[in-house]
Amino acid sequence: MQAALSFYGTAVGKKMVVAVTGLFLFLFLLIHMLGNLQLFAGPEALNHYAAFLHSKPVLVWGFRVLVAGAFALHILATLQLFLQNLGARPVPYRVKRTVEIDYSSRTMIWSGPLVLLFLLYHLLHLTVGSVHPDFSAGDVYRNVVTAFSLWPVAAVYIGANLLLGFHLKHGLWSWFQTLGLAHPRYNRWRNCFAWLLALLLATGNIAMPVAVLAGWVD
Amino acid sequence: MKLTLHIWRQRDRGDRGRFVTYRLDDVSPHMSFLEMLDVLNEQLVGRGEEPVAFDHDCREGICGACGVVINGLPHGGFPGTTTCQLHMRHFQDGDEITVEPWRSKAFPVIKDLVVDRSALDRIAQAGGFISVRTGSAPEANSVPGPKEAADLAMDAAECIGCGACVAACPNGAAMLFTAAKISHLGLLPQGQPERERRARNMVSAMQREGFGACTNYRECEAACPKRISINFIARMNRDFLKASLLHGRERGGKRQAR
Amino acid sequence: MKLDAKIPGGPLQQKWSDYLNDIKLVSPANKRKFEIIVVGTGLAGASVAATLAELGYRVLAFCYQDSSRRAHSISAQGGINAAKNYPNDGDSVWRLFYDTIKGGDFRSREANVYRLAEVSNSIIDQCVAQGVPFAREYGGGLANRSFGGALVSRTFYARGQTGQQLLLGAYAALMRQVAAGQVELHPRCEMLDLVVADGRARGIVTRRLETGQIETWSAHAVLLASGGYGNAFYLSTNAKGCNATAAWRAYKRGAGFANPCFTQIHPTCIPRSGDYQSKLTLMSESLRNDGRVWVPARKGDRRDPGDIPEAERDYYLERMYPTFGNLVPRDVASRAAKRMCDDGHGVGPSGQGVYLDFAAAIERLGEQAVRERYGNLFEMYERITGEDPYRVPMRIYPAVHYTMGGLWVDYNLMSTIPGLFVLGEANFSDHGANRLGASALMQGLADGYFIAPFTLGHYLAGEKPPALDTSHPAFADARRQVEERIGRLLGIGGPHSVDHFHRRLGAILWDKCGMGRRGEGLEQAIGEIRGLREEFWKQVRVPGGAEGLNPELEKAGRVADFLELGELMCRDALERRESCGGHFREEYQTEEGEALRDDANFTHAAVWEYRGDDQEPARHAEPLNLEVVKPSQRSYK
Ligand SMILES: Cc1cc2nc3c(=O)[nH]c(=O)nc-3n(C[C@H](O)[C@H](O)[C@H](O)COP(=O)(O)OP(=O)(O)OC[C@H]3O[C@@H](n4cnc5c(N)ncnc54)[C@H](O)[C@@H]3O)c2cc1C
Ligand code: HEM
Ligand code: FES
Hints:
Number of strands of chain B: 7
CATH topology of chain A: 3 helical TM bundles of succinate and fumarate reductases
CATH topology of the largest domain in chain B: Fumarate Reductase Iron-sulfur Protein, Chain B, domain 2
Largest interface: B-C, 78 and 80 residues
CATH superfamily of the largest domain in chain B: Alpha-helical ferredoxin
Strand order of the largest sheet of chain B: 2-1-5-3-4
Number of strands of chain A: 0
Strand content of chain B: 5-15%
Number of helices of chain B: 8
Bound molecules: flavin-adenine dinucleotide, protoporphyrin IX containing FE, FE2/S2 (inorganic) cluster
Order of helices and strands of chain A: HHHHHHHHH
Number of helices of chain A: 9
Structural class of chain B: alpha+beta
Shape of chain A: globular
Strand content of chain A: under 5%
Helix content of chain A: over 70%
Largest sheet of chain A: none
CATH architecture of the largest domain in chain B: Orthogonal Bundle
Distance between the termini of chain B: 81 Å
Radius of gyration of chain B: 22 Å
CATH class of the largest domain in chain B: Mainly Alpha
Order of helices and strands of chain B: EEHEEEEEHHHHHHH
Helix content of chain B: 25-40%
Number of domains of chain A: 1
Oligomer: heterotrimer
CATH class of chain A: Mainly Alpha
């Protein structure tokens, strides 16, 4: 316990918690997305998949607890780091210039919470159904299609996943660095890897609302 | 050339400080940035005003004493160049230049452009050494060291401790400085016995001094006048993780009560 | 002034080991009771402070920089010598000793130099164990390079930053002791006076540079490792803050100052580019291996170097020294360059420069090979001058680099004031009239790690200096003098800045006590420096107050001391009526224009004793009884 506390007491330790939970969340999202992509296989496949999940409450709830825990840790640690960083430069520079920072690394602290907001909306929308205009428990396929036929809803999903992509573009690269996975020989692959996976997740998720809007699935 | 300078002036630690604008008419492109400040100071002394205080010593890029933020970038942002090595030919007639001190909670401003960087020394005190008694060393060639590791250690060891990495980091983190020292010693056979201890203690010391946390922006690497790579930060993280996971686990080689 | 070098008896090779067997030791319990002041945290200071602390002494260490890691030793480039004989090229302790004595033009003490060569190997062991990343070969062993003045390859190096790496090693050892509570470190704290009580050095007076607070510190012994005084010349390769104040205050408190005129001028530095120039940058000597030095054969030829045809170039080193050519020793190369410029052949805007041309090397080896050898130096040159040395020949000129002179010390490294020890460049001990490359780092670390810790113990165990604190009247007295002086400096309020005077002093010393010296010139210089000193004390302007960070005040105190030391340098140069090493009296030269020593009359160290501001200092001589080596004439034709 003592050791864990002193580990977490350092910025490096907290950052590692962010990295590990971040990777876990990413993996969860990946599985989640793969499951949902069955949308393209038709109502049967998707609804069957949903029914299967509902028949395994232990698995689903186990996952939910883990994911919520990971979220909590991820958010707690990033918040603490954010506050530490705010305090580390009490007097700002008059001229602010940077060389390496890109849009995605600069916006981590905003892309994260926005994604969280979206997630809450998403839960209420497609899991609980309370903000869904025409929710019918059990018919996931119909719920998704009717939801995305409204273009503002689809836009929210598309926007949120773009943000998530940004978050992951920096996050996944960062993940290697934070956990000490670096070697000059392989380093350039880290960036490719981050780009690739971020793109994969974002396009996979975005494909669904786009497909509905375009009328490819109905 | 003619220049307009906006320079941070602050009497002492307690003073709130402010920017003061100065005009210089006769700047030669061959001057170094510090020589340009010398000329300004000489004029200020002539007018009976207090000259601008700035740290400097070797003026050849190795002692790490100098360092100011020039137009938003530490040491001016020219690759591999300290403030003392920066020459005025990189500026143009009529330029406006804003000169600020390193900004960090851990580096309080002492006066004008001079900051207190003793926090870096305290990080070194926490473990930036190999404990060897004078006179107890084995024959130098008795421990062969792979050339590649020695070269890599030297890449890290070139750190001049100027603090530009902290100044450049939007979070005011001192990761590059600390990582360079941990890596330098951790790469050498002589540094192995204390490797994990060193990583844990120096990382904790960084925390105590009030530096920020790394978010992998890579600004430190871009600002480092010795071009030290952030790969060393990854290496430090690795050492720290290993040290934290294994710390204390191997204690108690004796049979314990169950 | 009594000058007893206290050289142990017995054969040269046995002196140090016999000495170590004979000295008195301090018991571990007593070490804790002794407080030691170390002024300076360069190689000499950091190494001795760390070692003493490790032994159990309580150490107080001081430096003027914001961190002890920034001491001037950090900027040494080339390397450090040791007699390891790893390349198997016939090196030995004896050869290192002999080369160093000969390089010093036979003006140093045999016993000290032999000891230096003896401990050189332990230094390398120590530094490697500390984690100094010396260059290595693929087999994992340490690499060596060659340096001037030796036929063997014995220089250890860490890229072009050997001084930095050695200092960071010593700094690490020091930090470890600070963490252990054995060393109390005071950075940004400048020693302004030495306190001598009851005939012994018992403390110092310091000013905290950040706050201006004046403090006094007492101890059982004081160790000065405050570096050299090359900055007396204003322009030198030394760091801007390097100063003689600590040593000069000690001199004025009764320590003998030896051979102040022995200064080293390095031939390959980047020439100054204008009046604003604040310091000079060294370009490694190694460049002369492949570069050819030349000037236009016609006086005042202002054409671009590329427009001057081969036939109108004068490769003067190759012409004058056909055997050694561009590789003559530092002093010879420097003097030749000065002569060419004085004769009107100089190049560059100021006419104070000669070309160092790599065109032939690039043609012979290819640009890539030249880049591999000297890339970092070329880059440094281009950064400073804005010129590309691959296209245009480099311009170089000699610059003040090192001071062999310093406070006189005996074999124990103790000055003429009991309890005051002097280490590193601040003492005069090992380099005679000229220092060989890569031997200053060796000396600083030898003094700090392996010599002073023993000789200091011997002093403390033998003399048992009684406890004494800062209530002794000598402390209040010294403190008052320091405060008065600061008050005086601040009160003058004249029209000129401190640098104004420093530049003028530098110009006088460079012209008359630089590469070539003459009797009349030196006499004039003494008069001019006196005049300048008087003017300084009437006309200098030091803005700001005594409190708080005031860099102008710091400079003023240092320059005031240089204005006194400069006179002594000239006086010493005047009295040494011979040429040797870096000291070239134009009246004393061979027919070929080389240095002409006078061994019969000047095989001694000249030691100056302060006798008050209104009296001339007294010159004493410590004869150097060379028993083992036979002085010979150096010739490089
Ligand atoms: C550019 C350059 C390159 C060189 N290259 C080499 C080389 O390759 N090989 C080699 O052997 N030698 C070389 N030398 C020479 C060598 O670097 C120095 O002689 C040596 O480092 C001096 O070490 P030191 O410990 O005696 O003093 P320094 O390193 O000069 O340290 C002096 C210390 O004293 C302190 N100090 C001074 N005055 C005061 C005061 N009044 N109060 C408090 N503290 C004070 C300073 O803060 C500092 O800590 C080079 C020198 C130069 C200039
Ligand atoms: C939706 C799922 C999420 C995933 C997959 C995810 C993934 C990641 C990853 C992989 C990292 C990189 C860790 C590292 O630096 O090594 C990271 C960092 C971060 N995340 Fe998330 N994250 C998610 C949600 C969130 C949320 C909800 C927040 C905000 C409350 C957030 C805020 C942050 C912050 C601030 C960082 C640190 C950025 C930095 O240090 O540069 N993330 N995330
Ligand atoms: S003054 Fe030494 S690095 Fe700039």
